[in-house]
Amino acid sequence: MSNQWNDDGSFRNKPIGGWLHQDHQLLPGNGVSYPVRYMGCLEITQSMRSMSFETRKAVTKQCTIIVTSAAGMRSSSTKKIDKSLTDIIKDTPDMTNAGSNCQVIIDTETIQLISLDNQRSIGLYPLNSVSFTSSGDNDLDFVTIVSKDVIRGRFCHILECGNKSSHDILNTLGQAFELRYKQFLGLAMIDSRAVGNCYVAEPSAPPLTNEVDEDKGNDNNDHKPTETPTEVVHNSTDDFGMEPFTLEGCIGAGDPTNEEWFHGNISRSQAEELLKEDGDFLVRLTSNCIGQYVLSGKHNHTVRHLLLVDPNGIVRTKTQAFNSISHLIRHYVTSGNPIHTKDGLFVLKRPVALANC
């Protein structure tokens, strides 16, 4: 466990006076909100966890300069671009919704941006997809949020804060992450290991594996990955490294959006209804982890569900690793080889096409 966290899941470097809010205010359905202006975002091409802390700070500062320059903010546009970071960040920012006045709503599950003009969501960042936040540029009152989704990739989002509220927003984010981690510790103290393609966690409750729980009373839940505490930093510049709540490697799974057998974010029960005969299969997203995929297939009149991305972000089965989800499916369909699980095996014969459902 990182020395930034106590054994009970508390953040060591929390503000001396304590957090700003009552814990219940940050629970889903409540949330704490602040007025901000969304400035735009810039793509980051490398994993934040692969960088030193100083590099992370430099990257978010550089993103702030580029985005605010594109928005015509003169105090930032006069600053020079750090050419040493050109391999890490893209040149051109995405200015969609730039300049929108919003409420940023923070709870223990998500960071959401709601437009004040039309009350529509213009950004939703699950906490387990956020890898770093900071106060960004020192000259202006900004918060930067680095988040990754399975479709677009990793972006640094820039928020301009009103009334010098960036410090309060960063502290609220720190409190949300601490509460999230404490909730995790309350579920299980986990000693985890990888066994073949089976990610086995051994709390006092029955162990979790990469195979989805077959308990029919828990129809919509898939296996949740463990959250391992690493570096979370709070100092005078208000920076937080959020690796305890991200699965950075999942993007290595590739994007199977255009594959006929990919059904997106459907529940386990919905998947089981679509699998009519032995050999039928489909791939879906699980809502419990950004970028995690589940292979659902039928064999001997029984539907099995298998997570395809291990804790290190590698697409694999028990016997083999693959470059992508599509590579894995192609291999087993073409070869006719069975996929082995702890409860038996199943064979991929017929994809259930989304277009036919």
From TrEMBL:
InterPro entries, alphabetized: CEP152/SHC-Transforming, PH-like_dom_sf, PID_Shc-like, PTB/PI_dom, SH2, SH2_dom_sf
Annotated Basic and acidic residues bias: 215-226
Organism: Dimorphilus gyrociliatus
Keyword Transferase: no
Classification via Pfam families: PID, SH2
GO cellular component: plasma membrane
Region (Disordered), start-end ranges: 205-236
UniProt record, GO biological process: cell surface receptor protein tyrosine kinase signaling pathway; intracellular signal transduction
PID domain residues: 29-185
Domain of life of the source: Eukaryota
Protein name: DgyrCDS12045
GO molecular function terms attached to this record: receptor tyrosine kinase binding
Gene3D superfamilies named in the record: Pleckstrin-homology domain (PH domain)/Phosphotyrosine-binding domain (PTB), SH2 domain
Keyword Transmembrane helix: no
Keyword vocabulary terms for this entry: SH2 domain
Ranges where the SH2 domain occurs: 261-352
SUPFAM superfamilies attached to this UniProt entry: PH domain-like (SSF50729), SH2 domain (SSF55550)
